[in-house]
Design brief:
Length: about 400
Amino acid sequence: MEDSAAPSLIEWQLPDLVEPPAQVSMNYEIQPGDTLSDIFMEQGFGNTALNAVLAADEELLALDVLRPGTLLRFERATNSGDLLVLSIVSHPGHTIHYRRTINDHFEFEEEIKPSNWHEEVLGAPIHGSFYASASEAGLSDGDIFRAQRILEEKVNFRRDVRAGDHFEIVLGREMVDAGATGQTRIEAIRLRLGNRTLNAFLHEDGNYYDDHGESLSRAFLRYPMQGRYRVSSHFNLRRLHPVTGRIAPHHGVDFAMPTGTPILSIGDGIVSRVGNHPFAGKYIVIEHPSHFKTRYLHLSRIDVKQGQRLNRGDRIALSGNTGRSTGPHLHFELHVNNRPVDPLKADIPTASQVPAEEMAVFTQRVERLVAAMQANQTQLASRSTPQATKADI
Ligand SMILES: [Zn+2]
């Protein structure tokens, strides 16, 4: 009987040799009208997982507005069915993973691919309006809006622009291995109005200057409120979170202030988002014409609408204690080129000129961009019918 025991033991063990994977993954493409809670329910994940992921997203707010076409990836444990990782590909160069650590707690991790900026010159004679001509030349509404804001201290686009005027714009497109990320930035503008020429060049500090290195944007305010308030928590990429007791980045600076304190936009800009997040509370995101973005969290009242144009110092809200907060305060963030920086230490455009020690690099860049725009213009002039042109640099 011993002989038959061996094969039966092998048979017994066989199913175990082909172990099921410990986790399975599922991709989901966001559809118009989707909410995160609908998607979680559809995928069979409960409110506990949803809340834990939203808590991990408090510093990013990447899941608060779901853009259709964006890809989500869920990894779940085969045995328990629990969500282990949720990943969102915000663009081909930027993926965020919300990963279960212990119990029901999640932490985020960002995957940022190295990128470079591909430059092209777009130019056209102006007929009708600057907007119509720029649009025809291939610039998006966002790029046209930014171009107008960059030069708005120098030119009134409605009054000063006439038929026969001309523009060139050097547009940068961010590229990663997988292709274009969809991010663009204006590297240079040359606008010829009659016999007057206006120039704007992006410097490495994220601000725009004319060809002499004079700043085109108005200086920013350092603080988004009048008066001074105690800093209750500094910008810190490795902070001990006051509520969860864990190490987590703090992407802003917290000012302790009574609820109802007026909050001001630190610079000219446009309200790009207004929201109410279970953890960040009522919040506002403002995009500024240079490569700056600011965010204001835990507000009690919001006084602006998405798409609204703002001037530096405009009142946008009243401070509060909404969302997950240990007391009345303002959480204020400053992003340069889409990355959070310390608002108290960052090199914000308060200077009116390119610093002397950076002038050589700046001038070299100006010469290169002017040559590219000039070449484009010469090519255009050689044609019998004026039309929009586009060329890679
Ligand atoms: Zn904070």
